[in-house]
Design a protein that fits this description.
The protein is mostly helical. The chain is 75% helix and 0% strand. The relative contact order is 0.10.
Amino acid sequence: MSEDRTGASDPATAAAVPADRNPTVVALTARAVLVVAVSLSLFQLYTAGLTAMTALVQRSVHLGAILCLTFLLKPPFKGARKDKVTVWLLLDLALIAASIYCVAYLDWNLLEIFERQGDWIPSDVVVGVLGVCLVLEACRRVIGNIMAGICVTFLLYAYFGPYMPEMIIHKGYSIERIATTLWLTTEGVFGIPVGVAATFVFVFVLFGAFLEETGGGNFFIDLAYALTGRFSGGPAKSAVVASGFMGSVSGSAVGNVVATGSFTIPMMKRLGYPAHVAGAVEAAASTGGQLMPPIMGAGAFLMAEFTNTSYLKIIQIATIPAVLYYLTVLMFVHFEAQKRGLHGLPRDRLPRAGKVLRENLHFLIPVAILVGALLSHVSPMKAGFLAVVSTWGASMLRAKSRMSLRQLIGALEKGAKNAVMVSVACAAAGIIVGMVTLTGLGLQFSGLVLDLSFGIKVLAILLIGAASLVLGMGLPVTASYIVLVILAGPALEQMGVPVLVAHMIVFWYSQDANVTPPVSLASFAGAGVAGANPMRTAFTSWKLAKGLYIIPIVMAYRPLLLNGPTWEVVLTVVATAAGLVAFAACLERYLLGAATWAETALLLGAAAGLFWPAAWANAVGFVLLAAVVVSQRARRSKTTAPAQEVGT
């Protein structure tokens, strides 16, 4: 009803709504989405906090609901009408029915399937083929043709193994073996990626939806403005801090850009930042949200499973690198503000930190409960459940944040919708993982990386970085991490990189597609909010996010992840932090003031020395950085002295 009234009053909206749409079809579709999404969220909360289920059953129910949501929400192609009875609507209904059947077949016949492993009957094969096709179609709609094409390529590789080049040849597998492995076991679609998406990731996505619905997200943004808004380039620094706060509880770079950028980008533009710089700052800062504990990107939960490491340990080793990344972004923002003479906002235009905390202190309760649960070695899934429930409970403490029944249902629906992308990506990645495991391609690919890098770690890391950039053009970061770590992770381990460090390096590089042209989703989202040129924004965010490329190399050579003697870890952190400052100053040609070409060269040498894994090189780096500081202080004193004399 409200849509019709809006359309009548707004000609643009009225023109956008087809006149021949069927309101009954639209209403039934919306109702179906609501029922499926809310049911899925409640199911996930039930299995996360109240009772455990067989892995295959829990994952299959999760994926079945995700497939239904995909076919309800996503049209088969641009322009396909789903607002009236068309062939495309009927096709989607058939796909939904097929999804329900494939999941029901698996759950109803679970014991028989376990008993006849390897001795499959025709209906097993049919369901396996149909289930894999459904995942591929969902992948095509949600992620795009590139990811779906990669999955098909791996399927063809598994089938046509004997006809492959000698470097990657294998014996080949039948359609029966491929389909049943992928759909009727936990070695394919229902493997670790979907397992993580159906447990840890979903509850934290739901946690983010609850925070957003109750106003907790605005609390983090206001607190960031209160803390940093008065400094040089205040809104930009607020954007970095706010994105770190939000990213630590959302884990989605693009979602972070849209959520915090709607507040921070207009403020940066009003202060004097060009639109493309404002969008780039938000994109670079939001990308760091997937690296910042306590809630990182979905890949962090996968890392915990792949390496058989507690998520608490992942948080501990990820904190220092994440802080260093944000230090890099802050330095770029600071130097840019100093160069442009951009000052902070006056105090009367900023929220008061005390007032913000007094009015919103209850939003810290779920965060404290979450961190406390993780520190108490509660499973991440149970910790996420406690965070969601405590967010709802905390919202009831204040009238302005109290959730009505409509808001509660809305949060449950939003959480399920937000989980569609990552769950479909994990299901599609399960196809790739299954085929890599079945064919042994991972060992062959690792051997290729070793050969091309000549056994030199830095070359291998750069190759992985290049591969992640290529994969990131068509894959979400989670899928990119899964593919890379399965294919290239073993190569780093063979070079002596500890398994957890190898996974962390790959995890960091899998984020680069968010900010690296030509496909940089977070940058494009920032450009959209800022009204800026997308490619110009992308190249600027690429510069701001340079820590994303440098810090993983430091990880490979130095104990940045708390895996060495305390004194060496402290030296590494201090040297790396100083190196990042020098590197940012070099690129901006600004430290305490504008840098000459000679000072720029010294800054570059300082950065190289501070990053180099040797104490003598670090000492040289500190000396060179100090020399630039002394030089600029001396030049500043000379320029201010005459002004002081005139004043006297």
